[in-house]
Design a protein that fits this description.
44% of the residues lie in helices and 22% in strands. The strands form 3 sheets. Strands 2-1-5-4-3 form a 5-stranded antiparallel beta sheet. The chain has a 5-stranded mixed beta sheet with strand order 7-9-10-12-11, with helices on one face. The chain starts with 12 loop residues before the first helix and ends with a strand. The relative contact order is 0.07.
Length: 375
C-alpha cells in the first residue's frame, strides 16, 4: 500500500525516503505500516522487522502498558500534535539502548482507513545538554544555599555574642558577688547566708547553661543533626515529673497545676518533649506575676495528644504575635524580663521534628495559652 501517493500528480515517496527526520506510519490499531530509512537507522531495524509490529516495540518494556493506553486514547480522538509541545519519550533501539525522542503526530484518512503519521526526532544530545545545564544550575544553587546558610550562621553567631554579652553579665555578676559574700559570711559563721548565696550561684549557673544549650540546640537543628528517637511513655507520669522540676522556679504564691484526661501511654521522643514542655512552663512561670498559677493540661486519645500551657501573665501584644517564633525576637513588654528570645524558636523546631503543630492564643495583660498537638 502506498499511503503517500493518493493523487497521481503528487508522489511524496522521494521526500519520505530522503527526509532527515524519522517518519513512521501506523494504522488505527497501532500496527506499523511503513517506516522511512532515517527512522530505521535511528532504531537500527530493517523494515521487515518492524512492519506488522505494534509501536510499543520502540519503547522500553516498562512503558508498554502506559504507551498502549495513550495510543488508544489518541486514536479515538486524533489531532495534530506539533514538535516542541512536550511530546518527549524514552525510546529503545533494537540492541536495547535507551535514548530520547520527540514525536509529532498527524492523523489522515485514505481509502476509508485511518492512519497516524509520526515524525520522530532523536533529542538525546539536547537532553544531555539540558541535563548538564540543570546540573550546573543545581551546583550553583547549592553554592548559593551554602553561602546563605553560612551568612545566616554568622549572623546567628553575631547576634548570640551580642545577646550573650548582655545576658551573661547579670548571672556572672551574681556569681562573683555571691562568691565574695560566701567567703565573708564564712568568716563570721553565718551558714544561713552562705547557703543563700550558694543557691544564687547554682541558679546563675543554670541560667548560663540554659543560654549555651539553646545556642547549641539551634546549631544542631541547622545542621540537621537531631533525629527523633521514639519510646513508649506514660504521659501523665512524665508530665507530672516535669511540673515538679519546674516548681522551684515559681514565684511566691504561684503553683503549676497539672491535669490529664484520656489514654496514658504514647510513643514520643522523651528528650525533645521534655525540652518543649519545660520551655513552655518556665516561660509561663517567668512571665506571670506572683500569686497567679500556671496550668498544664494534657488530653490523649487513640489519634492525638493535645497539650495546653495556660498562664495569666503579661500576654503577647497583638503586633508581636506574628514574630513570636522568630529567633532572638522578644516582645516589647518582655524586655525587662531576662531571656534570649531563642526558646520559642527552638521548641517550634522540635515540635516540627515530632510531626506536631504549635499555636497560641494571647491577650496582652491577661495571659497566654500555648497549644501543642501531636497525631
Amino acid at each position: 500500500m502506498n499511503v503517500f501517493s493518493s493523487t497521481p500528480e503528487l508522489d511524496l515517496t522521494a521526500l519520505f525516503n530522503h527526509a532527515s527526520v524519522g517518519i513512521m506510519v501506523t494504522d488505527e490499531e497501532g500496527y506499523i505500516v511503513k517506516a522511512n530509512p532515517f527512522l530505521l537507522k535511528m532504531f537500527d531495524y530493517e523494515l521487515s522487522e518492524l512492519e506488522g509490529q505494534k509501536t510499543e516495540v520502540l519503547v522500553p518494556t516498562r512503558y508498554h502498558a502506559d504507551h498502549a493506553v495513550k495510543r488508544e486514547h489518541y486514536t479515538s480522538r486524533p489531532e495534530k500534535r506539533m514538535m516542541g509541545h512536550g511530546n518527549e519519550f524514552e525510546a529503545i533501539k533494537k540492541n536495547g539502548e535507551i535514548f530520547f525522542v520527540e514525536v509529532s503526530l498527524s492523523p489522515h484518512y485514505q481509502n476509508g482507513h485511518k492512519y497516524i503519521t509520526a515524525f520522530v526526532n532523536d533529542i538525546t544530545l539536547r537532553k544531555k545538554a539540558e541535563s548538564e545545564l540543570l546540573e550546573a544550575k543545581a551546583k550553583d544553587l547549592i553554592m548559593e544555599v551554602n553561602l546563605l546558610r553560612e551568612m545566616q550562621l554568622n549572623e546567628l553567631k553575631t547576634k548570640f555574642v551580642s545577646m550573650a554579652s548582655h545576658e551573661f553579665r547579670i548571672p556572672l555578676s551574681a556569681i562573683l558577688s555571691s562568691s565574695y559574700l560566701i567567703s565573708q559570711y564564712g568568716q563570721i559563721g553565718n551558714f544561713e547566708q552562705q547557703e543563700k548565696h550558694v543557691n544564687k550561684i547554682k541558679s546563675s549557673v543554670s541560667v548560663l547553661t540554659g543560654i549555651l544549650n539553646n545556642f547549641l540546640s539551634i546549631e544542631k537543628i541547622e545542621e540537621g543533626k537531631i533525629e527523633p528517637s521514639y519510646a513508649e511513655v506514660s504521659i501523665a507520669d512524665y508530665l507530672t515529673n516535669i511540673t515538679e522540676e519546674i516548681s522551684p522556679l515559681t514565684s511566691p504564691g504561684q503553683t503549676v497545676i497539672y491535669q490529664h484526661t484520656g489514654e496514658t501511654n504514647l510513643y514520643t521522643d522523651v528528650v525533645l518533649m521534655r525540652h518543649i514542655i519545660t520551655n513552655l512552663l518556665s516561660n509561663a512561670v517567668k512571665f506571670s506575676p506572683k500569686n497567679k498559677n500556671v496550668h498544664l493540661f494534657s488530653a490523649c486519645t487513640d489519634t492525638e495528644l493535645e497539650i495546653r500551657v495556660v498562664d495569666e501573665g503579661i500576654g503577647i501584644p497583638a503586633e508581636a504575635q506574628a514574630n513570636i517564633f522568630d529567633r532572638f525576637y522578644r516582645a516589647a513588654n518582655s524586655m525587662n524580663i531576662q531571656g534570649t528570645g531563642l526558646g520559642l524558636s527552638i521548641i517550634a523546631s522540635y515540635v516540627k521534628l515530632l510531626k506536631g503543630s504549635i499555636t497560641f492564643e494571647s491577650v496582652e495583660g491577661k495571659g497566654t495559652t500555648f497549644i501543642v498537638r501531636f497525631e
